[in-house]
Amino acid sequence: MTSSRAAWWQSAVVYQIYPRSFCDASGNGIGDLAGIITRLDYLQQLGVDVLWLSPMFPSPQDDAGYDISDYQDIDPVFGTLAEFDRLLAELHRRGMKLVLDLVVNHTSDEHPWFQQSRSGRDDPKRDWYWWRGPRAGMAAGAPGAEPTNWASAFSGSAWQFDEASGEYYLHLFSRKQPDLNWENPQVRAAVYEMMRWWLARGVDGFRMDVINMISKDLAAGEFMHGPRLHEFVAEMHREALGGGTELLSVGEMPGVTVEEARLFTDPARAELDMGFQFEHVALDQGASKWDLVPLDLRLLKASLNRWQVGLADVGWNSLYWDNHDQPRAVSRFGDDSPEHRRASATCLATLLHLHRGTPYVYQGEELGMANTQFLDISAYRDIESVNYYAEALSLGMEVEAVLHSMAPRSRDNARTPMQWDDSSHAGFTQGIPWLPVNPNYVVVNAAAAVAEPGSTFHHFRRLIELRHELPVVVEGRFELLLPEHGQIWALTRTLGNQLLVMVANCSSRPVTVPAGSVPDVAGARLLLSTHPGAASRDLQPWESRIHLVG
Ligand code: GLC
């Protein structure tokens, strides 16, 4: 029971499904909608309120479905529209909601819109994408003649030369993902119409892929947070989301600042309900995403705290460690050794779910699924990893060094199949999985976790339950304690006369909470703990506790 001031999505927990890797009912080695339907009871038992499905639209799968060639259908590899309707009905019947992944910064180059656009300079859809001639004074197609020096997120230039017309088109991601030109009102109208079509089918909202890239200013060299970004997002809200709060909208926004996020999520501006920021997932990287540097816990705490403070009175946070683009949190922020894997996975969950905002659980996170092992380059599937490898070798880097830097960082870590049980391929498929399962599935799997009361699964279930039961988890004022401590993460949440106190040992060594540094919890109700003896000031490795005072 939450107070009437909170919107439904503030007391909700979202579960992200990556359809390729969730559950394969057809036996072709790729997950599908029919497979998801067979696992809804599991998700209901976990207690999540909303499913976010990564793209399952028709796609050449150059970027695993984030390259869409038809926005209004289902890729045959995943199923049919009829199966989609059945999934939606089954979810609604269980009181759960469904959010789709809206990838509208770009389409696939095989989308009919782009096919028309590239058919000639005079085509009416030419202006639906970003076509430009070579840099002034340079010959079209010559090295270095690209209209700007922008790099693609997946290596190489962000411009692809088109021989037929002598012009270049922009692709901030792969060359098979041309960027839509949102300056063109027809593009925006087509996107809103497509969104309304899905809403009429019954979906409950959208996760908006790289939404802060839709407004660009080529002259100023800006492709993020361009001059018309807020105008476009507000227009989308008005035209497609009905301006209300019944639907959930969450925008993925690499590089967004707290100040920008306040504007986006201020309810008075009717733009987005919440955004995914990237600050905390950049703290363990150096010069590039492939350059892993040791993480300082104090910086991680300070970063999340900055977002808590910045969005305390206006706006709303979304909270995540894991998703389909990030290495597994237990391997990255925790300790995935057999000794500490379970405790560190539960510790990270406790922390995150006790911040103020809507938590996102990525498939398998509730099992403490960890990064996988890659023997050589043939083990990778993701375009980002495969392209990086080729680029790094062409720059003269050693194979071993490149593979070493890729292993902990590759997005394929997140994309190994969901581990359902200890049968072959972890019960994910009867066929050969498109990406091998993590060899630890024999121990780490849903069947074992559901059967065992002390598992990570039941810990997540309890955290979700707490959010549903206690308004203080949803709305309570946040305060970070011991900001300078290198091992302990401690915080309080306050609402009326209720006080939640959370302490956690974020390390694989025991630690003692300094006397007087956190509110006294003697006599308080212990809501959740991971180790016996929760009254002492000594914390075992990765131990976490939540007390309710008052
Ligand atoms: C987002 C998606 C990522 C994709 C990219 C391009 O960052 O989460 O998976 O590769 O956008 O669509």
Topology, pairings included?
Layout: E1 14-17, H1 33-37, H2 40-46, E2 50-53, H3 81-93, E3 97-102, H4 112-117, E4 131-132, E5 159-162, E6 167-170, H5 185-201, E7 205-208, H6 229-240, E8 248-252, H7 258-265, E9 274-276, H8 297-310, E10 318-319, H9 329-332, H10 341-353, E11 358-362, H11 383-394, H12 399-406, H13 412-415, H14 446-451, H15 456-469, H16 471-475, E12 477-481, E13 488-495, E14 498-505, E15 511-512, E16 525-529, E17 538-539, E18 544-549
Parallel strand pairs: 1-2, 1-11, 2-3, 3-7, 7-8, 8-9, 10-11
Antiparallel strand pairs: 4-6, 5-6, 12-13, 13-14, 14-18, 15-17, 16-18
Helix pairs in contact: 5-6, 10-15, 11-12
Bound molecules: alpha-D-glucopyranose.
Alpha-D-glucopyranose binds next to loops.
Strand content: 5-15%
- Mean pLDDT value: 96
State the share of residues found in helices, binned by percent.
25-40%
Strand order of the largest sheet: 9-8-7-3-2-1-11-10
Radius of gyration: 23 Å
- Give the terminus-to-terminus CA distance: 17 Å
What shape does the CA trace take?
A: globular
Beta strands, count: 18
Small molecules in complex? alpha-D-glucopyranose
Structural class: alpha/beta
Main β-sheet description:
8 strands, parallel
Summarize the structure.
With 550 residues, this protein is α/β, with parallel strands linked by helices. 27% of the residues lie in helices and 14% in strands.
Could you characterize what this model shows?
Helices cover 27% and strands 14% of the residues. It is of the alpha/beta class and 550 residues long. The strands form 4 sheets. An 8-stranded parallel β-sheet has the order 9-8-7-3-2-1-11-10, with helices on one face. Strands 12-13-14-18-16 form a 5-stranded antiparallel β-sheet. Helix 5 packs parallel to helix 6 (229-240), helix 10 runs parallel beside helix 15 (456-469) and helix 11 packs antiparallel against helix 12 (399-406). The model has no long low-confidence stretch (mean pLDDT 96).
